[in-house]
């Protein structure tokens, strides 16, 4: 199994996803500021993965606080939370995980040392829980996929794999489960400009797992669907509103439009921790804008002339009416059924 975030020897080990697929490098993180930078620069990325990373970042920050006074400790911990919240705005998992860590600190009655220990245990629980959640998503996804005698070809976008979670993946979790059950022919992976998570990360994960994978450029997806090459589209999510509107990597929205045009089921695979029930629809989901260099530069090559402007939104929002179903660890739901999960979500994520 592939784990992008690992607690080991009193530090956090991150697979450096900016160096894949050509180099498998691990970065050792000891301090909260370094964890914030790792999230900001996408050494670690993917909604659930940055939630897990932020949880450990909260513990790293907690152990840096040198006071035995509980009130002072909590005030300092809130500053760590603010630092981590400032890293990336769209994936709600980041904010949920930080909120859970703060809630744990406030609820722990004891010495500062006892609060710090409880924070570490909470981060480790968030980590292990997400692996189990992804495996449940994968298994529930099997029931959602088209029931055809032939094996399926699934198109996915960006990377919603083990690298984007604590392990196993969400969209690629469904792919892994389908592969293991003998229901998959191959994956078509959008390269996913500008950060190329599909070409670099999804393709790498599939090769590691022996899953046949075809990489296409983003502008080929519609043609592939029109040719009848694709049986289903399965993507991840960074934030899902209560009505099922879903923020995911830029390019997801256009995929959903073309999938509907060609009557191809379009699935979002995501844990409950990605659903933001405080938003009635996707209109208020914050969309991260990243540096223009992600568009105009690949390696040492500058792609565009000087004197041009750039617009680099990292995400878009797919309206619920374009989504066939949302695959969660609690089952498969039509977008308008998510409200059934609200009470359960509040029980699991209360006050975060
Ligand atoms: C398992 S959801 C992963 C989700 O996060 C990715 O964004 P980024 O690579 O910028 O962190 C992408 O939207 C994926 O679908």
UniProtKB/TrEMBL annotation:
<keyword id="KW-0028">Amino-acid biosynthesis</keyword>
<feature type="binding site">
    <location>
        <begin position="248"/>
        <end position="249"/>
    </location>
    <ligand>
        <name>substrate</name>
    </ligand>
</feature>
<dbReference type="InterPro" id="IPR000649">
    <property type="entry name" value="IF-2B-related"/>
</dbReference>
<feature type="active site" description="Proton donor">
    <location>
        <position position="238"/>
    </location>
</feature>
<dbReference type="InterPro" id="IPR011559">
    <property type="entry name" value="Initiation_fac_2B_a/b/d"/>
</dbReference>
<feature type="binding site">
    <location>
        <position position="88"/>
    </location>
    <ligand>
        <name>substrate</name>
    </ligand>
</feature>
<dbReference type="GO" id="GO:0046523">
    <property type="term" value="F:S-methyl-5-thioribose-1-phosphate isomerase activity"/>
</dbReference>
<keyword id="KW-0486">Methionine biosynthesis</keyword>
<comment type="similarity">
    <text>Belongs to the EIF-2B alpha/beta/delta subunits family. MtnA subfamily.</text>
</comment>
<dbReference type="InterPro" id="IPR027363">
    <property type="entry name" value="M1Pi_N"/>
</dbReference>
<keyword id="KW-0413">Isomerase</keyword>
<protein>
    <recommendedName>
        <fullName>Methylthioribose-1-phosphate isomerase</fullName>
        <ecNumber>5.3.1.23</ecNumber>
    </recommendedName>
</protein>
<dbReference type="GO" id="GO:0019509">
    <property type="term" value="P:L-methionine salvage from methylthioadenosine"/>
</dbReference>
<dbReference type="Pfam" id="PF01008">
    <property type="entry name" value="IF-2B"/>
</dbReference>
<comment type="function">
    <text>Catalyzes the interconversion of methylthioribose-1-phosphate (MTR-1-P) into methylthioribulose-1-phosphate (MTRu-1-P).</text>
</comment>
<feature type="binding site">
    <location>
        <begin position="45"/>
        <end position="47"/>
    </location>
    <ligand>
        <name>substrate</name>
    </ligand>
</feature>
<feature type="binding site">
    <location>
        <position position="197"/>
    </location>
    <ligand>
        <name>substrate</name>
    </ligand>
</feature>
<dbReference type="InterPro" id="IPR042529">
    <property type="entry name" value="IF_2B-like_C"/>
</dbReference>
<dbReference type="InterPro" id="IPR037171">
    <property type="entry name" value="NagB/RpiA_transferase-like"/>
</dbReference>
<comment type="pathway">
    <text>Amino-acid biosynthesis; L-methionine biosynthesis via salvage pathway; L-methionine from S-methyl-5-thio-alpha-D-ribose 1-phosphate: step 1/6.</text>
</comment>
<feature type="site" description="Transition state stabilizer">
    <location>
        <position position="158"/>
    </location>
</feature>
<dbReference type="InterPro" id="IPR005251">
    <property type="entry name" value="IF-M1Pi"/>
</dbReference>
């Amino acid at each position: 199994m592939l784990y992008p975030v690992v607690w080991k020897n009193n530090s956090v080990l991150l697979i450096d996803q900016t160096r894949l697929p050509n180099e498998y490098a691990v970065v050792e993180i000891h301090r909260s500021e370094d964890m914030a930078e790792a999230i900001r620069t996408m050494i670690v990325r993917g909604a659930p993965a940055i939630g897990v990373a932020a949880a450990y970042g909260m513990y790293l920050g907690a152990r840096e606080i040198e006071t035995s006074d509980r009130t002072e400790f909590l005030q300092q911990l809130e500053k760590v939370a603010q630092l981590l919240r400032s890293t990336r705005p769209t994936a709600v998992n980041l904010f949920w995980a930080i909120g859970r860590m703060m809630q744990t600190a406030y609820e722990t009655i004891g010495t500062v040392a006892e609060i710090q220990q409880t924070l570490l245990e909470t981060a480790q629980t968030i980590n292990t829980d997400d692996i189990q959640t992804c495996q449940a998503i994968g298994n529930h996804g099997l029931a959602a996929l088209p029931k055809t005698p032939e094996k399926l070809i699934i198109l996915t976008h960006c990377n919603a794999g083990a690298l984007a979670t604590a392990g196993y993946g969400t969209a690629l979790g469904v792919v892994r489960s389908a592969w293991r059950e003998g229901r998959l022919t191959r994956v078509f992976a959008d390269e996913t400009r500008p950060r190329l998570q599909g070409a670099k990360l999804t393709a790498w994960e599939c090769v590691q797992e022996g899953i046949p994978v075809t990489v296409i450029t983003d502008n080929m997806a519609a043609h592939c669907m029109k040719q009848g090459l694709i049986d289903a589209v399965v993507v991840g999510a960074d934030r899902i509103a209560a009505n099922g509107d879903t923020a995911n990597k830029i390019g997801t929205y256009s995929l959903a439009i073309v999938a509907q045009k060609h009557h191809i089921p379009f699935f979002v695979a995501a844990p409950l921790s990605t659903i933001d029930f405080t938003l009635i629809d996707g209109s208020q989901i914050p969309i991260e804008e990243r540096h223009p260099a992600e568009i105009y530069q690949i390696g040492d090559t500058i792609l565009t002339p000087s004197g041009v402007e750039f617009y680099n939104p990292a995400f878009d929002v797919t309206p619920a009416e374009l989504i066939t179903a949302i695959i969660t660890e609690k089952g498969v739901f039509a977008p308008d059924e998510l409200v059934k999960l609200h009470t359960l979500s509040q029980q699991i994520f209360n006050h975060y």
